[in-house]
Amino acid sequence: MAVVFRNRFISFAVTLWTLASVLPVSAGQFEDAEAAVNIGDYLTALRLLGALADQDNTYAERLLGSMYIKGQGVPQDYGLGMRWMRIAADKGLADAQNQMGILYQRGLGAERNEAEAVKWFRLAADQGMVLAQNNLADAYALGLGAPQDFGEALKWYHLAADQSSSYAENVIGIAYERGLHVAQDDAEAFRWYRRAANKIYERPDDTWIHSPQYNIGAMYASGRGTAQDYLQALMWFTLAAAFGDTKPPDPLGIKLVDTSKYTALEQRDRLMALMTSAQIAEAERLAHDWRPHPIVTIERREK
Q: Does 258 have pLDDT greater than 90?
């Protein structure tokens, strides 16, 4: 039955996959398929993945789902993409489970179902997947498919932060700055923002909150959690703008965590009006010379 089901929804690409060798799949064929996708050689990718999927390769099933979802080498079809993704997810593949959550949350390939999304996010998060931990935390923070519970959200954000997630570190910084389920503490907020800001931000297009570069810039500008320093503030706002923090924040963020309504470009321009040309030039030099350098906090362990 499973073979009939699979063959029914790969009919579009079956003519490509018949080009696949009837010999057993080599250990490196999946890596070859991934490489083919990365360079846009979808004909080769489909040929390799078809052979792998016929041998029940979970990773190939997940990648086929992704190709249908993105329309890579096949007509974009969220329904078929979800079917392939579901096969891999039911086998316990965390990445596929997280993708199932995203599809249900956005109503792609199936009717939107936020509670079902939370179920899939949790399955992947329980396996330690950072993206799923953040997605599950967001669901609790925003009340999407689960009761709004910032305490439960922080638990998952901390698990993601333990794996160096800049997004999770940024949200934890916001929690301390705003006093969300923790004691309000500007110095602790600054520490978390600094951890996140010294990395490439992993969610630059998510506008419900500002980037950590923006947030640490705001703290330097106001002198909260650290000494006031317009030069450092301008450097960080310049970096925030360069990384894409240029859109007005989502109204949800403004309502939930009092996210600033100003964009990084607006904050940058406001600061520049208060500074000398020499200070501005120095801040721009610092921003130009900046390189990601995660700060590692070394803590004493009890013997």
A: no
